[in-house]
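Service request form, structural biology core

Requester: graduate student, group of Dr. S.
Request type: structure prediction, single chain
Budget code: on file
Notes: please return the result as structure tokens.

Sequence provided:
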Amino acid sequence: MDVSVLMHPGEASGWDDYVERHPTATNYHQLGWKSVIERGFGHKTHYLLARDGETLVGLLPLVIMKSRLFGKFAVSMPFFNYGGMLADDEAIEEALLAAAKRTAIEEQSSHIELRHQSTHGFGLQVRQHKVTMILDLAESVELQWKGLDAKVRNQVRKAEKSELSVETGGTDLLSDFYGVFCRNMRDLGTPVYGLSFFKEILRSFPSSTSIFVVRLDGRPVAAGIASGFKETIEVPWASSLREYRNLCPNMLLYWSMISSSIDRGFRKFDFGRSTPGEGTHKFKEQWGAKSFPLAWEYWTGNAKDLPDLSPKNPKYERAIELWKRLPVAVANRLGPSIVRNIP
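Core staff response, request fulfilled:
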């Protein structure tokens, strides 16, 4: 068995064919995310392939992150919930991990973070501090509506009675989404992704990516991006403006995305990751979503402690509070150069 790095476009079809048929593959194993990361953030990637003769039997997308603040490290996949190894068996996983370790050492990286959905072992340390929230979708919009909690239905109706409207599209709605997203991220004290990142996603995945915008008198007050893969549609980014919270635009946004997903034939709705017990976790639970622990596994070389780049880390608290006070225009200008190095 040979493990190599994807080097030329001729191997692209084999990569995505393998992802399509592997039972535990996720959206972010698709090869298109390689160009999204490289073009949107400028990061170096190593896409590892395992072959048995001419047959592809495993793969591992790996991204090298580098900054003065956090140092140099490797992640599969940064910015998203899922990544890590796909393989036909444990022996191939072990070979991919060994190749990843060699790559990290050659790149002088301090550690490797593999964002798995379950533990793979091999002596890796694991952190299970986050969960993903999945809602099983009903066969029809009507059945899904009937299954909702009465409070949720009332909040959706309130949004509709407040004359909020929903628009769905693609690149044509990107500026509306981005305006809401930037405001919300500043309010949370989090640097914002650059607009170019979202442009790359829509360029690479035009048929599986949709933007939803909730409007009040034409003005965007909530917005989200939905990305489909196999039977699952995921919402990696959704935001609403705080001053319109009493009109429940976020409830109308999510109901529109859920009902659209059912109409398009998806079977699962992925709300994205949350910290158990926090506000976003409770918000997603009210829709009927179930929690599934994520297993982020680490190779740390000679270090004993796990890296902690989380905003919950006390050493970043002051920076977060200062960021919340920045004018939106300043936060938008500074944010992309900072967040590109936060996985």
